[in-house]
């Protein structure tokens, strides 16, 4: 007996929600927590500790450049696609063996950072923080590759949501959680506790299943190996239909949001909002709405597919920027700000879930770590470089005009998405990646 017509859509949405109720998604959530945890230990938490002990602002600014490995991780990503650790892969497989080895080293590096003395051994502390950032970025590479390979295409949106949810909770633990602990215990113990929380990711690596490998054995000759590891992923990507359009879309999908986000805090200050008001709306309510958005985005990807979900997210991201133009006309109105931040963060989370699913599905499973690291580095470069003109735009157009302009900046990406949908009418991004 078939379902009644009126109940069929309900059943399809229930099935889409069920994409979260798998062991794989739980593993990905735990890995996301382990991935987000080290980030702030080398950024805001570290800068707070340094300033608390009297380190100069100039030295703090210089030391925070140790986070450079996050921007350059594509350079060593091929190692995790093609190099096998002796013995361990026999029991754990390529991905999980690399993940456990990196996590053990990451735990040690976090403990070592905590043992540093900012007043007497700042150079040692910088080197330890650099090692921590390198290992954290390496962990991100392996976790991203694992998530992409273990999930089917319709599950990628939910996987993106679970990753981002875990990531934000990890950042909360190493940010607000670490600062709260530091009021009662020594910083060395704070960092040791944070290191212990990486065990969450280790547990995930142990209980998770190893993805089925689709990587051909690499050549043994050194030059051929380097060509296979470094050049073949690029050649593979360039063999796809519309690959330049895909790269342009990756650059531009978050363009309007990046420009608007770069000027968010100056906008709040100009309207007279206090630090407490900004923090309560953006860092508390906003985070909740972002997480809600990514979970809804994962369901939409599972229900209607990646490319349609990108369209929904792209339009939502553009339209919600207009709410800030409205706030600019209201002045210091906390209710208006809460509405604008809530809708914008929800739309941003929805779009991010679809976008991460799209980037994941673009990767050929023979070069997962390398291609995803390259795509996310391109995305990060675009977000930073394209937002550099935001201040000039705000001064020239004024706040209402500025936010209307950020809405219009979303149009090029939506046009590119329309062309990509014509190139791949059935979605089929992973099919295209595998057959390129």
SSE string = HHHHHHHHHHHHHHHHHHHHHH
Q: Which architecture name of the largest domain does CATH use?
A: Up-down Bundle
Provide the structure class.
mainly alpha
Q: Helical stretch count?
A: 22
**What fraction, in percent, of the residue positions are helical?**
over 70%
Number of strands: 0
How many domains is the backbone divided into?
Answer: 2
Which oligomeric form is depicted?
single chain
**Low-confidence stretches at least 5 residues in length (pLDDT < 50)?**
431-436
Distance between the termini: 42 Å
Radius of gyration: 22 Å
Q: Beta fraction of the residues?
A: under 5%
- What is the fold-level CATH name, i.e. the topology of the largest domain? Growth Hormone, Chain: A
Largest sheet entry: none
What does this structure look like?
Residues 431-436 have low confidence and may be disordered. The protein is mainly α and 436 residues long. It folds into two domains: 20-213, Growth Hormone, Chain: A; 223-435, MFS general substrate transporter like domains (Growth Hormone, Chain: A). It has helices at residues 8-17, 23-41, 44-52, 57-63, 69-72, 77-82, 89-115, 122-150, 156-182, 187-197, 199-207, 222-238, 243-252, 255-262, 264-270, 275-304, 306-330, 334-362, 368-386, 390-408, 411-423, 429-435. It is globular and about 65 Å long. The chain is built from 22 helices and no strands. The chain starts with 7 loop residues before the first helix and ends with a helix.
